[in-house]
What does this fold into?
Amino acid sequence: MRTTRPVAAALATLAAAALLAGCAAAAPMVQPAAGAAPFPEELETYYTQELDWSECGDGFECADVTVPMDYDEPDGETISIAVKVLQAGGESLGALFINPGGPGGSGIELVENASSTFGDPLLESYDIVGFDPRGVGASTAVRCYDSAQLDDLFSRTYDLTTDRGFDRYLSDLTAYGEACEANTGELVHHLDTVTAARDLDVLRAALHQPQLTYLGYSYGTFLGAIYAEHFPDSMGRLVLDGAVDPSLNYAEITQGQIAGFDVAYRSYLEDCLSSADCPFTGDVDAAVHQTTQLVHQLADTPAPSGDPERPVTDSDLYNAIVIALYSPDSWPVLTSAMAALINNDDGAQIRFLADVAMERDDNGEYPEDEGAFRLIDCSDYPVELDQQRSRELAEENAEISELFGEAFSYGEVGCAAMPITSDAVREPIHAEGTPPIVVIGTTRDPATPYDWAESLAEQLDSGVLIGYEGDGHTAYGGVSSCVDTAVESFLIDGVVPEDGLRC
It folds into this structure.
């Protein structure tokens, strides 16, 4: 499941957050300017490059940073990483690099919305650096299907309990993966998170920062943890919000998210049932069952959406629920959409929410780089295609959640169909010898369950845990004044929060 802030992914090829891939450091090393860590001699051109900055909006400056496509061949083909900086409102402490998650989320888009995402103390104190990771957005980006092809793919349904349905699903996703490779080229084989962390260190140096100060959400916590593991001598202050547990394998990540979305949906239903507008009846268990029955109904008979060519299906309902669970502010919208669907057989609002989740705009266009999510994700996950095991896991997951269990269980098929093979190793990240790293978890986070934050904070030698008692995905940025104060005090003043702080 995509864990971008603030958008969720299509359920078409469900996958988990990206984790560890291996990479070897090169030698000899070059000593840079005072205060900065040494870097490999063969990468000197990249680490010492001077950027061509230009104004790109009120208070913003933009540049492209050149990095090797393959760090094992630094003299080979290069790609560019797009950077957009919002200048500090006051005296700057330096650069704060940000990542919104995904994988495949745009840091350029996040920095453009910085004023509504970050607190004033942070905006006053730091130059906020948004960047699009390799494969994403304004950087050298992935290209797979065009919007018409995606509409066709997302409109298809599959009965994965049958051999025919499973084979059709695998065939369609294989064709999609082949298009990604044909339209993107060699880059599809160099999208793993360790490589992205190496890009981030080049960005740090190119922006003349002796240490990395970083705020990462969701998948961005994994990127930050990987950076800390590989570049401990360049570590500054890191905040990892909505943490991913890097020690879990694909099936365990999937099961964690199934449980997380179940907890989050039940929290939504408890709130919904307290309102006169709620279309569900009975208690929370009854409402979950009613939702499951609605899913089955839409699978058999899609509902009108106002567009005869795009009726609302069971997948659309799942996407609408998922996107709404990312923030309690969206719960009233989901309630209104559910009421229209249940009471009036009107799926227009569900269609709207599903399109938001899929990032499909009013003109029917999807982001050109939409394939970045699964390609990055699959680069970090070694998977094996085992149809029987997939079905067994779906049955096991149905015991975890009546509503989400089976529907979220076939993500590894999407990775197995991609034209890439991951040799990543699933293991804890310790980041020995680093300064304190703040890890934040939300107790009813749907996409990154709270126990993942507990696990990451425990794995990290210098991990410090903040727990937010609440709903939604991630916590810093106006959700909790307690969290905001702790994060800003740490990033600005270096005040390390009490380990285990509860907000």
